[in-house]
Amino acid sequence: MNYLKTLKAKPKALPSLTNILTDDQASESDISTRFTQLREIIISNQANLPVLIDNLNLISSNLNLILVKWRRSTQLGQILFTIPWRNLVFKDQAGLDLLTCLLDMLSDMIAITPSFIQPIIKNIILKIYLGDISDGTGDKLSSAESHVFQRTHTFMKELVETYPSASQLITGLIGSNFPHYITSTSHGYISYLTNILASIDYLLDTYDILNTVVDKLIWLELSSYKVAGDNKVDNSKADTSANDVDLSVKCFSLFDIGFDLFLNKVHYLLHPDGHAYDFTKAETAINALEDIFFHQVINIEALINLPFTLVYWSSFSEDLCERTLERLWYNTINYPDKSNQRTVLLLASMMVEASYIKTDHVLIFLENAINWALGYSESYSDVIIDENFNPNVHSIFYAVTQSIFYLISCKISDFSQIQLKSLRLLNLQSLITAKLNPLLYCLPTIVEQFVAIAKEHQIALCSIVVDRNKRLGLDVSTFFNHSLCYYFPFNSCTFQIASPKFDNILCY
């Protein structure tokens, strides 16, 4: 493995270190003494980076002596790993020279003794990925940090290319050493996240890295809501309350910055050549994103902002949009448990709010959803709606029908006359009069709007069903324990993201 070497000049050896690293017949006791002296020299050089670099280069040129003849690999590793890399490598050009020297030496050490791979990776992650230790609050990387990170990832990429097994080690160490959002500095957290996202470009398991990043974003978003919510519930202790507010602000600030970094990486992964989305080139990335979001993110009802990633990546191409919509609908009807009620609600909300979704797609969904709902209701044609009826048994049905009514109410003005005629042919009347009574178990605000629109555009006659529902006198309020924004989250009331990436893909 050849790491790019920028230090062209031959290091000028210090006499003391030259005397230590002599290829003579030294005894074990002499070697131990020499290593003690070597450690002291390295420690004393840390205040003078040019001298430290010269000495490290001299050590590097004698690696065969140290690692093979003297068999002191563990001791050399201990000396190198005690160097406070994070305090030194971000010091402008001198720090970059030191980093180059270190990485060059580490590369040669691995070539001689591959067992160094794991401790070297761990030390790089712990001592470089957290960024400049002197910056605790800033969310922007300095020029020195950017150069350091770039060179570090060049080293890591070459390491993975030469030793593919290193990819799994890096992935595991990245996850196990992720800084905690409470105890770490904001700058350290963002620096670490930046490096993790950069590592996706060369690590072999895209899914694991993306899953780690998404998991941290989930915790940040949920923690910002939880801390803020706890503070609202109990503000009797002024000091604790103030600390909670600060933590909530920190969590959401980290989420906001981290989410924007994540969206940048999503865009890059799905446009690997910098051009339009091409599934054949981005297949691994889109499959990983879909698995993570469809099996994890969208089923966490408390998440507000992170699910907007679906809306973002679906805007890249019509094919990708159709793929997302089809996957949401597939999950709805093939896994009809409580958690997957949310998929159809997200689907309807996305169709209403995403400016790039065509009305043809809306009509296709309405046809599929109405036909599915009619088939479902026919299976329960003998059901009786009374005080003993449990609507939760049919929650997936009511989620679909509520989505139908909501979508028609919001998109009716966008339909052409031809599309309106197609809508009238979808047999909404049979669905409305079905024994499962979908208008009864639908948010009142949606029912009111849908009934008015259905009458105006002659889509269906709802008045008889509405009057009958009033006469039933059933208390169905417990079935709706959330607001409209909760059920259809992609709207202007819940949107909290500062990123301009959504400016042209949302209707508001």
From TrEMBL:
GO molecular function, one term: RNA polymerase I core binding
Domain of life of the organism encoding this protein: Eukaryota
Family annotation (InterPro entries): RNA_pol_I_trans_ini_fac_RRN3
Any one Gene Ontology BP term: transcription initiation at RNA polymerase I promoter
GO cellular component terms attached to this protein's record: nucleus
Family under the similarity heading: Belongs to the RRN3 family.
Record-given protein name: Uncharacterized protein
Native organism taxonomy: Eukaryota, Metazoa, Ecdysozoa, Arthropoda, Chelicerata
